[in-house]
Design brief:
With about 750 residues, this protein is an alpha+beta fold. Helix content is about 20%, strand content about 25%. The two termini are about 35 Å apart.
């Protein structure tokens, strides 16, 4: 960090400050004139999705911020959400801090622990050392989900990593109408319902405004960091129906025309060079005109749901920016808007209206999609768009999220700071990386990086400040090489050149085909120079291995399913019994009983009064997938909800008054090959039990083969989006003493299938 950059608070960046005051900040006090910081992190938004990056999606708030500040065309991420967040927060490469892949599992190797190392302070921890107050809102996803329950440990939650307040969710995704919410260190109910007009984006912006308003009322002399990580536009794509349908006409021309329109706008803006070439369609993506009229109609609506979700988020972001103006603090607030990776390929070639069914071997044929087209984006859907529209989102780049080609790692980045950034509406084309953000912020604010925090020596910062580019369009890109790796896909950038390898999962790494691009002259990575410059490619591959060894990337591991299955097995270990007592709170899905692909028994101890009782005894999931055991009309009911399809068994007799043990015994039956899915499946038998006696039986081919739900578990109520045919929360009106879940030792998970299902969650 240069001394000059530490003296930038007397005027616009780039001017020299001369006074007799020392430049260094007083311990635990912010530097004089230190700004507020608002970071707005979108999820799975592609390079071209903001209006100011070429899209027709309405994002006037973001566009205005860009017009008042800067847009970067060379901002790079890490291809996935947990990993980019780790790099952004710490200023180091994601493997270096232990987040080599996802927070969902711990492989045991230093680069793949699923949790940010204590030796890697977050930007919040750094700013706290200089008097900032720090507020985290929205998606976290950088602590193991097996540590997301009531007992934590909380050292990896936001309040354990430098933030003073937290309101959001810990997982990769959540339902926008019935989210898995956490306030500080406590799981809470959403403050509203879909019927009442609730949507998570609006709630997150409300909480952001509240945190800032409370701060301004209490300590207006102290600057703040507010980190707003929206669920938009990660699946499920959910937004008001009128916004969604309003985009049908916009996108009815299909993804091929849309790509051409977007690249034309990007060239007109100067965002990409005039000679930028459009890559061929990604592997497996058909021409729009090759799809049937019904397919085109469904695909258009799925894209409209994505667009409506982004439009909706921009409208609420407008409220937050307007509040800053009203409060008189906008001028000295640095606002950054960006995305964590490219658009997602997890919707598959045909997209989903409810992905929960297919991931439990219940297909979603096109005819069913068409029948449910008007449900898209609603409360009982888990919507994601098909590959073709994800490809269009990433225009003019190749491939998607998870990949190390441009479509996975090149993202929009907008910066606005009226008081300090004199540039208005300018473009910056430097290569910058997510790990460069924290050193840039500290550089801009004149804050040195601590060598020790809480008695723990800190590892060196690995990113480089790009503060100079804020004022100097000709400033150089970072001087050091930047590697990439995700699920075996690899890449390396140095001095305007990029080598990249797409890795087919399960194949030898030595068989990967490396490509070479002169990125400074080939924005879209279409002119492969590997054969023309083999010596350069060889040197860059060697450099990749050197960087990989330096940053804990090795050993390479391309396994999806095995890592997910191993993590679940390791966490629950030999435990076979869960006892849930009345009065307990919500249980996140990753710490709930793992009843996938196994036999199990649930038993609730209840007391029923003379007038009877009704309500939920135990429920895990939501309207898209899960199970619920409940009493209705005096009868015991179990609902197996697979992708919104209900397999219901009702007791053959009513439950009399008194103390009872009510339950369901689930038994896996004969296993067989599933020809369509290429995996093993089989029937299950669900037997209701009243005081240990059978009271009704159902056999079904459906079951929790790969997942239960991404929503959690409750006893005595179903707190959010209802699993079955009742109105949530449908609290039990009798006396519920406890619920016991006993898992039998016959679990046989399809690891690869689990991996595919889990990847749709990331």
């Amino acid at each position: 960090m240069s001394r000059g950059s530490e003296k930038q608070f007397g005027g616009t960046i780039g001017q020299t400050v001369t006074d007799s005051k020392p430049w260094w900040p007083t311990p635990n006090r912010p530097p004089e004139g230190a700004p507020n910081i608002l970071v707005v992190l979108f999820d799975d938004v592609g390079f071209s999705d903001f209006g100011c990056y070429g899209s027709q999606i309405r994002t006037p708030t973001i566009d205005k911020l860009a017009a008042e500040g800067l847009r970067y065309s060379g901002f790079h991420t890490t291809a996935m959400c947990s990993t980019t967040r780790a790099a952004l927060l710490t200023g180091r490469n994601h493997h270096s801090v232990g987040m080599g892949c996802l927070a969902n599992f711990d492989s045991g190797y230093p680069g793949y622990r699923g949790k940010i190392a204590r030796e890697a302070a977050t930007v919040a921890e750094c700013l706290r050392e200089h008097g900032y107050r720090n507020y985290m809102v929205g998606k976290w996803h950088v602590t193991p989900l097996t540590e997301s329950g009531a007992t934590g440990p909380f050292d990896g939650w936001p309040l354990g990593r430098g933030f003073d307040r937290f309101y959001g969710f810990l997982d990769a995704e959540t339902d926008q109408y019935a989210p898995e919410l956490v306030s500080d260190n406590t799981h809470i109910d959403p403050p509203g319902t879909y019927a009442e007009g609730y949507h998570l984006t609006a709630d997150l912006i409300d909480q952001s405004i509240r945190f800032i308003a409370d701060h301004t009322a209490d300590r207006p002399d102290i600057p703040w960091l507010t980190w707003v990580a929206l669920g938009a536009c990660h699946a499920p794509h959910q937004a008001p129906a009128d916004l969604i349908r309003g985009y049908d006409a916009t996108f009815s021309h299909g993804w091929d025309v849309e790509r051409e329109q977007r690249i034309a706008r990007q060239k007109a803006m100067g965002l990409v060079p005039e000679d930028t070439k459009m890559p061929p369609r990604n592997d497996g993506v058909k021409a729009w005109d090759e799809h049937s009229a019904d397919e085109q109609r469904v695909f258009t609506r799925l894209q409209s749901a994505f667009a409506g979700m982004l439009d909706h988020a921009d409208r609420h972001l407008a409220r937050l920016v307007a509040f800053l103006d009203k409060a008189g603090i906008r001028d000295n607030t640095l606002i950054i808007v960006m995305s964590d990776n490219g658009a997602s390929q997890e919707g598959g070639p045909l997209g989903f209206i409810n992905a929960m069914g297919p991931y439990n071997l219940r297909p979603e044929p096109m005819a069913e999609k068409l029948l449910r087209i008007d449900d898209i984006g609603g409360p009982d859907t888990h919507t994601n768009f098909p590959h073709g529209w994800a490809m269009a989102s990433n225009t003019p780049l190749r491939r998607y999220k998870q990949n190390t080609h441009g479509g996975g790692i090149r993202d929009p980045f907008v910066m606005s700071w009226p008081k300090r950034i004199a540039a208005r509406g300018e473009l910056r084309h430097q290569f910058v990386h997510a790990c460069d953000l924290t050193p840039t912020l500290l550089d801009l604010f004149g804050i040195g990086f601590p060598t020790e925090i809480a008695g723990i020596a800190q590892m060196p910062i690995e990113g480089e400040s790009f503060a100079r580019s804020v004022t100097d369009p000709a400033a150089p890109s970072k001087s050091s090489a930047q590697y990439f790796e995700m699920f075996g896909h690899r890449g390396i950038w140095q001095d305007g050149w990029k080598a990249v390898a797409f890795h087919p999962s399960g194949t030898p790494f030595e068989s990967d085909k490396w490509e070479l691009f002169h990125l400074d002259r080939d924005f879209s990575e279409v002119d492969n120079l590997a054969e023309k410059e083999p010596a350069r490619l060889e040197e860059m591959i060697k450099l990749w291995w050197s960087e990989a060894e330096k940053h804990n990337v090795l050993p390479l591991d391309d396994r999806f399913g095995a890592r997910f299955a191993e993590n679940a097995s390791r966490f629950q270990g030999a435990r076979t019994t869960f006892i849930f007592h009345a009065g307990m709170g919500h249980v996140p899905t990753d710490v709930a009983p793992d009843v996938r692909s196994r036999s199990y028994t649930i038993e609730a101890h209840v007391e029923v009064g003379e007038v009877g009782a009704e309500g939920v005894l135990i429920a895990h999931g939501d309207a898209t997938s899960g199970y619920s055991l409940y009493i209705k009309d005096g009868l015991l009911v179990h609902d197996l909800n697979i992708g919104g399809g209900h397999e219901i068994v009702t007791s053959n007799r009513k439950i009399p008054a008194g103390a009872h043990r009510l339950g369901v015994k689930v038994e896996r039956l004969v296993r067989k090959e599933h020809p369509a899915m290429g995996t093993r499946t089989g029937a299950s038998e669900y037997t209701l039990l009243i005081d240990s006696e059978p009271a009704g039986t159902l056999q079904t081919e459906l079951g929790f083969h790969l997942l239960i739900s991404w929503s959690g578990l409750d006893i005595g109520r179903d707190r959010g989006s209802p699993v079955s045919h009742y109105e949530a929360p449908f609290e039990f009106t009798g006396t519920l003493l406890q619920v016991t879940v006993v898992m039998h030792p016959d679990q046989d998970l399809d690891g690869e299938g689990v991996g595919d299902a889990e990847m749709a969650r990331q």
